[in-house]
Amino acid sequence: MATVIGVRFKKAGKVYYFDPDGIWPHPGDNVIVETARGVEFGEVVTGARTVSDQQIVTPLKKVIRVATEEDTRRAENNEKREKEAFQICQERIARHKLDMKLVSVEYTFDNNKIIFYFTANGRVDFRDLVKDLAGVFKIRIELRQIGVRDEAKMLGGLGSCGRQICCGAFLGDFQPVSIKMAKEQNLSLNPTKISGQCGRLMCCLKYEQDNYEAVLKRVPRVGKDVITPDGVGVIAEINCIKETVKVRVRVDDDSYDVREYAIDDVRRPSAEDAAALKDMSRPERKPRRPKPVPEQPAEEGEEGSEEPKKKRYPRQKAPRNLSTDQFLEKLRESEGAAQGQALAREHRRRRGRGKGGEGHEGQAPKPETPKGE
User: Fold this and answer.
1) Residue 188 per-residue DSSP state
2) 62 alpha-carbon distance from chain centroid
């Protein structure tokens, strides 16, 4: 167990624990503390209290002193300098033609470093920009890329509810939010209605999710059988906020009615209710109309005969994709076959010339002898 105080450095920022070290400031007081980045100016949000060792990060930093008037003026002066640094950095970004958006600038309390927060679609080569800014400010420069949620938190704005966005007002950490939460809360899945200023799912979907999960565990899903005060029924709708369910119960032999009950008034069927579930007849669904089959005229002399079978044509085989080696081998085979056919044609042509009586080169044709001699 350790005694700590909670300090926040930004509006709606994360709360960090520090060792009071004999200094007992009250919530709302400004203090000077030692952090990993150096000396910082922060505001106390929680008084001294005891927490377990699992909730703190060792070694625990100490509070140096309660902020004086000079420390407060210095912090205000740093805020004015941050606005000037913001304009200078924007001009340098435009000069270097970098695809990045500057969001915020932060001076450390001891003026040893300036941190520039920006957003970008991908990786940005800002080495020349850092050298340019270091030549202007003559101190250490750090460029830090942030996400769209952090950007909305720094810039602030109004949500669809008309109030200030939660991350810019009081949220210290971002909680994971999924589309499954919107489905369980029966919200419209239109992205424009369930997305915040950052373009992601709204953080407020997480607020009531625990209550929805607890209520849904107490009742079966929609479409399941339940036992109601009026008999056996089927769940048609669940209202988690009012903790009520709408059940379709059988009134007469052929009529059904949808009635609303409290969740505690309905229960899951047990083994004793098997007979009641078996006797319950569900509303019959209208059978689907079969598609009309066009009548084919019968040929002459074959009245009343069966319909002729449709002629089936063989399906064309898909072309086979060959690898590079297979393609080259097939190409060589085709070239060899073509060359063999050319040689065969040349051989047949020469044999035809010999049979025609023209003779071979270097030999004279034999003279013909008359029949009477």
Assistant:
1) -
2) 41
